[in-house]
Amino acid sequence: MCGGGGPGTTPSRAVAQPDGSFRVWGHTTFISGCHNATWCFMVAPVFDGDEMRLTDGAPTVKLWMLHRDQWEILDTWDVAGLRGSGSHDVVTEGGVVPERFAEVDLVTVPPLYENPVYRIPVPLRLAYNKAAVAIGVARGALDEFAELANSKTPMLSSTPLRDRPIAQYRMGEGEANLRAARAFLFEAMGQVEEELWAGRDAPSAERTQIARLACTHAANASMQVVDSIHNAAGTSAMRMNSPLERKLRDAHGCATHRWVAHPLYAELGRIFLGHDAPAEFAGTGGPAPSPGR
Q1: Does residue 106 fall inside a structural domain?
Q2: H or E segment and range at residue 196
Q3: CATH at residue 268
Q4: Average pLDDT across the chain, whole number
Q5: What is the CA radius of gyration of the chain?
Q6: In terms of domains, do 61 and 143 share one?
Q7: Residues with Cβ < 8 Å from 105, sequence gap 6 or more?
Q8: Residue 43 belongs to domain spanning
Q9: Beta-carbon neighbour count of residue 115 at 10 Å?
Q10: What is the pLDDT of residue 287?
Q11: How many CB atoms lie within 10 A of CB 255?
């Protein structure tokens, strides 16, 4: 399954049909994994004919589950970093959602399963998986650098790269920074999990904020580790056949993602200085019950 993303060039809409099904029109972006998915979920407001359906005065909006034969992939993911995510655009022109799937949602409140993952607010869930990818990219960069340093003798040098003080310094610093970021991430998410296993419907505002901070830090610290290691590797890391070249692009791709990008430091800093926390950081920014249809 794939889905989510941002709005595309075509405003989305879901039109109720006489037989209880819905037909969906829309264009959505950043649909990671779409080439491997059988289902795609899209956000669209409900229309009865030409009239938008309202619930308590607000548009009725939900996620619609569309089978692979109801949508088309647009080849738009031409990027430098995270190329492998395949986050192309997806478009549907009257895709059919049968009546039996019309009530299906991506999330439900209360959740249908006990596992705490189903109660993690969506923004935190999106941040955590991006942080995990960033940590993995940085780990791979350190491993690649160690292999290169043991086999490369820099130009005008008689000793391998591993004997250079700068290589040793960057390796030690990188290991420390990456392991510290990973430890903070595991600690923060572990505290969220503890609260949820204890029976909370959602994590507390405090735990949510610390976890979002840990995710943001993990992504940005990982990027800095890769930057430092790439630089220490010399021109070998610049070549397109070098794993370090790809890891440099991927690390920057991870750290620019909306849910872990560096501007979040300022948003969280405002909260730590006493400003009110918006829903995204208050433990309430997760899945909400779908309005009646």
Answers
A1: no
A2: helix 165-197
A3: 1.20.140.10
A4: 92
A5: 23
A6: no
A7: 62, 63, 290
A8: 2-101
A9: 11
A10: 42
A11: 25
